[in-house]
Amino acid sequence: MSNPVAPLWQPTPEAxxxxxxxxxxxxxNDHHQRSLPDYAALYQWSVDNRESFWGELWDYGEVVxxxxxxxxxxxxxxxxxxxxxxxxxNFAENLLRFRDDRVALIERLENGGxxxxxxxxxxxxxxxxxxALVSAGVGNxxxxxxxxxxxxxxxxAMLATTSLGAIWTSCSPDxxxxxxxxxxxxxxxxxLFACEGYFYNGKTIDSLPRLAQIVEQIESIQQLVVVPxxxxxxxxxxxxxxLDRATxxxxxxxxxxxxxxxxxxxxxxHPLYIMYSSGTTGVPKCIVHGVGGTLLQHIKEHRLHTDISxxxxxxxxxxxxxxxxxxxxxxxxxxxxxxxxxxxxxYPAAQCLWDMADEENISVFGTSAKYIAALEKAGCKPRESHxxxxxxxxxxxxxxxxxxxxxxxxxxxxxxxCLSSISGGTDIVSCFALGNPALPVYPGELQCRxxxxxxxxxxxxGKPVLEDKGELVCARSFPCMPIGFWNDPDGSKYHGAYFDSxxxxxxxxxxxxxxxxxxxIIYGRSDAVLNPGGVRIGTAEIYRxxxxxxxxxxxxxxxxxxxxxxxxxLFVVLREGLTLDDELTQKIRTTIRANTTPRHVPxxxxxxxxxxxxxxxxxxxxxxxxxxxxxxxxxxxxxxNPQALKLFENLAALAGE
Length: 657
What we know:
Distance between the termini: 33 Å
Family: Belongs to the ATP-dependent AMP-binding enzyme family.
Strand order of the largest sheet: 11-10-7-5-6-13-14-25
Helix content: 25-40%
GO molecular function: acetoacetate-CoA ligase activity
Keywords: ATP-binding, Ligase, Nucleotide-binding
Number of strands: 30
Oligomer: single chain
Domain AMP-binding enzyme C-terminal: 550-618
Strand content: 15-25%
Largest sheet: 8 strands, mixed
Domain AMP-dependent synthetase/ligase: 96-475
Shape: globular
């Protein structure tokens, strides 16, 4: 199953030598008396010598800390590993290490609004807001929540919160009321930052009715701080007059006594973020991430795997309900300029984000595989219409990027970029496999496994395999494992989520393959793997073929229990005005069969008007499978379009042969 094709892009030896990754390799050789010749050797060393690697990374990344301690690893177990057990540090202090006049944040709203802050101005804003939080009684271990768009104020609120040793948690303002209650209701925040409205797809959405319900139903909220986005400051003040426990952001900061910004020094594993599983099969799990592991992992991924420096302008299309927001914001630790965009990526036109890429001189452009596929279907060719002079890297995540997506980027966006498909997740607030500016890019492959992460693919017998499909695992402990789950006192939920398959080994739930040159192919989620006739098929293998069919805009594939076996069912959304007929059905099946196996060919192809997705844009195969089998979908509030599930109920086409 290896990838025999030539790379789509390859860095020159001079370009490789100039990367921070290669600089780090040479540093390891020098400091540890090694002669590691390339990334493969560096990776193996980092996994075989985890303490030396993570200690070296701490020093290379210039982590700001009041104490590092001599020990890198105390207890080495999964779960429960003790990384840097004697360290004392603060997350916000590391993101605010630069305090000069370089631009730190650029905010762009769909309606054309633009603001920016320098690093010096960012520090001042965080200082003022941290003083207000102290005045409101927020301290070490308290939770502060954001029901916020991706704007400057959200970043400031997170940094002010974490400077105090408090815990930040957020979700996007497009969540429905039950989705918010299912998340924030579990973690009981003391302060809630929320926008009064936001812009999306040409509309202005009012958040105030939901804010009233949130405050009414979450008793722990002592202060609701309302941030003006769709209204100006005075209109916002007028609009929240009758809202319980509410104040405007300006009033909150202006009435608090001044206080110099200080950084609460905490343990390495002190809680930093609470993040949430998508929760489509039950109430979302509250995943708690620690200060040190998150910081170290993000420094590694930004500086080494993405080669980000002070000269870069980093953009990731994300909301505050997706872990890529947390990943993006950590770019401040590199001193880069971050671009925060809030709105639809296709409004007012398909090329709007590329207009922004030119205007802001974006050098690293991050997005989802779904966006890249939709851009290609829309016929967008930024290479012909835009300059993209500084663009040197494109990052893609959220779902596997198909081979055609890789080729589209090089053909129609820019030929000379490092295209990095990356994969990890909310569970580790980072990546298991990702990019590398010192390695070639092969279609359909993630370039490499992340340094220090003992990522393997295991077969059903728990044996590592190469160039064969199996379960993606991490066989040894790593610093960015969650501390645990909130409200899981005995750790049983945490253990059940990752360690039930193989005790002491992290099973991530991805169906994957490690290729002959050390790349990784993700075939989909293990729990969505199809099993017709006992043969395991990753859904990504089918989606890759369906994306080639011009008439199909979107698709979702499930296994339907049928006559003591499983049959493959494919649902498709077609271009406007088209209807699925025998000819198009046959075209879809022939395309799949020509490039896979007869077992991949769906027994049923059914047209639907919409496909349910999470708010971060992932299709929900398990939820659709449950609906088809008449089982409940417990937490529809996790979906951006829960009404779409109705389209899959009691389908006559699935009742017969």
